[in-house]
Amino acid sequence: SFKPNTTFFAGDSTDGHLKRNFSKLDLRYNIIFLDANHAYDYVKKDLEFYSKFLTEKGYFAFHDIDSWRVPGVKRFIAELEKSKTNFTKVAEFIKKGYQFDAGIGIYQRQ
């Protein structure tokens, strides 16, 4: 079960209406798990927008970080790890040998 202060949003993460509603809450989150459009540009824009709502040492979790079916996430993660951003990888969960490779990567704001 989830804590009472857990917030879920469903929809297109790039949709202006969803982003406005998300922003209106004016909350800071300890973790944001985003399973959205997996194209490189969308993953990059999602981190840029939604990371503003993380607490100082909050976590951002990405879905499908090792999927050959959606290489945009994997490409973005590789660049994120090489760049001088304020996010550091703290955990990675990858499932190989299933119908398709997948994975979750968790990065902490520094």
Keywords:
110 residues, alpha+beta, 3 helices, globular
Which SSEs are present, and which pair or pack?
Blueprint: H1 16-24, E1 29-34, H2 40-50, E2 54-63, H3 71-82, E3 87-93, E4 104-109
Parallel strand pairs: 1-2
Antiparallel strand pairs: 2-4, 3-4
Task: Provide a compact summary of the structure.
This protein is α+β, with helices and mostly antiparallel strands and 110 residues long. It has helices at residues 16-24, 40-50, 71-82; strands at 29-34, 54-63, 87-93, 104-109.
Explain what this protein looks like in three dimensions.
A four-stranded mixed beta sheet has the order 1-2-4-3, with helices on one face. The termini are far apart. It is built from three helices and four strands. It has helices at residues 16-24, 40-50, 71-82; strands spanning 29-34, 54-63, 87-93, 104-109. The chain has 110 residues and is of the alpha+beta class. The mean pLDDT is 90. α2 packs across α3. It is 29% helix and 26% strand.
Name the structural class: alpha+beta
Q: Please work out how many helical segments DSSP would assign.
A: 3
**Share of helix, binned:** 25-40%
What does the average pLDDT come to? 90
Termini distance?
29 Å
**Regions with pLDDT < 50 over 5+ consecutive residues?**
none
Strand content bin? 25-35%
Major sheet details: 4 strands, mixed
CA gyration radius, whole angstroms: 14 Å
| Widest β-sheet, arrangement of strands | 1-2-4-3
Number of strands: 4
**Shape descriptor:** globular
List the helices and strands in order. HEHEHEE
